[in-house]
Every structure is written in structure tokens, then in C-alpha cells.
Amino acid sequence: MGQVPWYRDGQVPWYRSGFCPLFTVGYSTCHWCHVMERESFEDEAVGSILNNHFISIKVDREERPDVDRVYMTFIQATQGGGGWPMSVFLTPDLKPFFGGTYFPPQESISSPSFSTILRAINKQWHENPELLKAKGSQIIDVLREFAVQSSKATLQDLPQPDCIDKGCDTLVKKFDKQYGGFGAAPKFPQPSILTFLMKGHVHLKGNPLSASALESALFTLQCMSKGGIHDHVSQGFHRYSTDRTWHVPHFEKMLNDQAQLAVTYTEAYQITKDPLYKEIVEDILLYMTRDLGDQDGGFYSGEDADSLPKVGDKQKREGAFCVWSAKEVQELLKDPLPGGASQTRGDFIVSHFGIKEDGNVMPQQDPHGELTGLNVLICHNSLEETAAKFHLTEEQARTILRDCKKVLYKEREKRPRPHRDDKIMTSWNGMAISAFAKAGSVLNNQSYTDRAVKTAMFIKTHLYNSAGLLFRNAYRDKEG
Questions:
Q1: Which is nearest to 475 in space by CA: 435, 422, 434?
Q2: How far apart are CA 178 and CA 107, in angstroms?
Q3: How far apart are the C-alpha atoms of 261 and 163, rounded to whole Å?
Q4: Distance (Å, rounded) from C-alpha 177 to C-alpha 179?
Q5: CA 432, CA 451: separation in Å to the nearest integer?
Q6: pLDDT score of 310 more than 80
Q7: Where are the alpha helices (DSSP H) in 413-471?
Q8: Contact 372, 323 (CB under 8 A)
Q9: Whole-angstrom Cα distance, residue 255 to residue 432?
């Protein structure tokens, strides 16, 4: 795609005014944004269509969340869902009339190709532009009316206490009793929903729904902690699971997800005192501090899903930093298990994390063949069950697991790291402050409290302007 200067007054350049604007939004660590970038935006044929017939506008979601929100509202209203990458076709006065998320490079039964969509939009734009402009105006009028009505809400219109009962009841009915979470794939962690259920448990005390609400939240947290969405080697959680079982994730890691999940697991520990939840809180905060923490006190925004499989490779692959072959694990962990057994620590890890010789990722979960023969670590059995299988005490198994993870972590650090999005978002850092402050209080850990204070001081020092106004978007090695 070519580039042209953008006019300072924000208007479409007059010499391109007969062209249809195409507005695209993505973010630095988004896997499918990179996929569409490689498949379409870097393709010469697609680039030719865009350069000759469209005004292409590209925006980073975290740099302009306000603009993203406007057009994502349109996508969600017209498509029934949203996500990134987001592509929206606009009128010259920036009203949307058609859009979607990921568009494939080739035709399929379920979707036309991106180039087919571009040609169709261009044809309609030149044959009947007034119809598309009218459609854009109608859509905006509907969305504006909805916004106006929402803004007129009174105290009487606010949700009443019984909405907690209704909300918990609805979620419990949608609860996946086998694998946790709500509904089918893809599954997102949804920490706000889990926190709502735990608070609903307290609110509904004495109501049979109270126990079900808590059980739904806790079982989901347990399943997530065992699944591939949880990075068992380098800590933290990936963005979401592509399957119902929390096994194969999209591998990007986002600061906002880590911070919210840390709060949710802290609250689970607060309610139950189960050490599992404390362990996961410590796991998440370790990842945030070590891999996303800036030395001056802030936190970076996230890490990419894609990376080079090994030094010298040219093509990035999704999950390359995180996945393992069975052979690699066995070669790294050759030491025998205690007691003179013929089995090795590699056998222990292979069993505990569901590793298979030919890989444990199903083809339908790997549309681009990037994970063939490789394994995403997932715990199908408890540590007690793995210990019993290898005739070990639980304490022996725990020590072996810890030591083996250290070996795998050291080996993983030799791989090319994923790209890190080094924007420091004020709002997400606010979430990080909440996570460390709450964990510091509940777990009685002063180091967590100190980290929360350090981040707050970073924001106070670097993310306010001379007038005392808080910067909203980002910090990147310079104030504001």
C-alpha cells in the first residue's frame, strides 16, 4: 500500500475526494491483524486495488481508542459481533456503510475474499455513491438516536438489585459444567463476569443460586489455570482460547488481561483461602513485573502472538515462542526420576502436560499449519494423579515440576522473543495498580504494595501535563 500525506484539518485530501475511504484498526500484538497484513495488505494485487481506488486509513487501537469505539459500535450493531482487525468503508464525511473484521485472501463457502469485497465496494461506489452515502447516514442516525436515548436514563432506569439475581441465573444456565466458562468456542477469560459471580455469591447468601454462582466462577478459574491459555513455563495468560477446553490459545498476552485476572484470582483466594489461587496470582504478577515492567515503574501493553521459531528464520509463526515438540522436551529432561526408575523427568512432563509425539494440536485449531507436530502444554491430570502414576510423593512431584519448568524456561529464553508493544497505556496501568495493590493487601505482601505505589508515582510524574491533565493514550520513552 502507498502512503499520502494527511491534511492537518482532518479532511480527506481534495485530489482524492472521489475515492472511498477504507478505515482499518488493529493493534501491535494482534495475531489476526498480522495475518491479514501478510495475506492482504502486503499483497501487490490487493495493494494495487487499494492505491488506485481507495483512501486507506490505518489506526492503532490503543493510540485512538475513542475513534475505534465509534466504528466498533457500528460493526457490532451490523454484524452481531466485533474484533480486530476491523475494516470499515466510509463516506467522505466518515459515515460507515459496510465493514467487518478479518477478511480472508481467498474465496470460501463462508466468506468472499478481501479483494472481491474491494472490487464490489468500488463498483457500487462509482455506480451509485448516493445510495451508499444515504445508507451511511441512516446507520449513523439510528446509532445516534440510541446514544441519545441512553443518555436520558434516570435513576429509575438504573438496574435494580434483582438484576444481580437475574444476571447470576443467566450465567449459571450458560455455564459449561465440563470445561468451565460460558458457551462454546472461542472462550475468553472474562474476569469481570467471574468477579460478578463471586460478588453475586455474597449478595445472594441464603439463596441456592449463591453456591452455583461461586462454583461456576471457581471451576472456570481452575480450568483456565490448567489449560493452554495459561503459560505454564513463562507465567501469565494468553488472550483467549480457540477451543472449548482452554487448550489452544491465540498466544498474544495483554497487560489489561493480566491485571484483571490477577484481581479475580486474588478475590477467589480471599473467598476460599485455597493456595491454588494464591499461586496463580503470584504467577501473573511475576510475568507482569518481569516481562512487561518498565524500569521506571510503568507497564508495557503486551507481547505478540507471533515470533521467529529460531534465530536466523525469516518467517514468524504464531506461538513459536511457547510450543514444544516431544523430542525437544525429552532431550532437555533426560535425568531419571527418583527411586532408580527407568523413567525420566521428560516422561513426567510429557505425561503431566499432555505432550504427544505427533503434537497435541488438532488441524482444525491450526488453520495455517504453524503448530503441526508441536504441543501446547495443558494439565489434564492433577499433580496428585501424575505423582501416583510415577510412584512419587506429592512433594517429590511438586519439586520435579518446579525444576523442570525452570529448565524449559531457560531453554525458551534462547528463542527469539515475540515483539513487545512498549506503549504505556494510562488506563491499563491503572488496572495494574489495582492488581498489585489488592494482592499486596490480601496476600500481605509488601513488595506488591510497593510496586503499585511505584507505578502510581510513574503516572503522576510522566503522564500528567503542565496543566494537571492526565494523558489518556500512551507513553513511549518520553513524557506524554
A1: 422
A2: 36
A3: 24
A4: 6
A5: 9
A6: yes
A7: 426-442, 446-462
A8: no
A9: 8
| In the block, residue with C-alpha cell 501473573 | 284
Which of 273, 192, 380, 322 minimizes the C-alpha distance to 281? 273
C-alpha dist (Å) from residue 262 to 76, 141, 273, 284, 476:
29, 41, 15, 6, 25
Read off the pLDDT of each residue in 59-67 and give the average, rounded to a whole number: 85
- The label of the residue with cell 518446579 reads 402
C-alpha cell of residue 112: 468472499
Whether 198 and 267 have beta carbons less than 8 Å apart is answered as yes
Exposed, middle or buried by CB within 10 Å (0-12, 13-18, 19+), for 412? middle
In percent, the amount of the chain with pLDDT more than 70 equals 92
pLDDT, residue 147, reads: 67
C-alpha cell at position 28: 501491535
Query: Residues 28, 87: contact at Cβ < 8 Å?
Result: no
Contacts of 283 (CB under 8 A, 6+ apart): 230, 235, 236
Spatial distance between the Cα atoms of 146 and 98, rounded to a whole number of angstroms: 19
Q: Which of 220, 226, 333, 346 is nearest to 283 (CA)?
A: 226
- Pairing of the two strands 420-421 and 240-241: unpaired
pLDDT, average across residues 437-448: 98
* CB contact set of 322 (below 8 Å; sequence gap of 6+): 231, 233, 234, 251, 376, 412
Q: Which cell goes with 407?
A: 529448565
* Helix, strand, coil percentages for the chain (3-state, nearest 5): 50, 10, 40
* Cell output for 448: 506488591
Please spell the DSSP secondary structure of 238-274, one letter per residue: -SEESSTTS-SEE--EEHHHHHHHHHHHHHHHHHH--
Q: Are 434 and 259 in contact (CB under 8 A)?
A: yes
The CA distance from 336 to 27, in Å, is 45
Please, what's the b/e burial string for 384-396 (b: 16 or more CB within 10 A of its CB; e: otherwise)?
Answer: eebbeebebeeee
Return the amino acid letter for 218: L
- Whether residue 475 has pLDDT greater than 60: no
Q: Compute the distance between CA of residue 231 and CA of residue 286 in angstroms, rounded to an integer.
A: 12
CA-based end-to-end distance of the chain: 30
Closest CA to 48 of 104, 116, 106, 1: 1
Cell digits of residue 208: 441456592
Give dist(CA 286, CA 237) in Å, integer: 12
* Nearest-10 crossing angle of helices 44-53, 114-127: 20
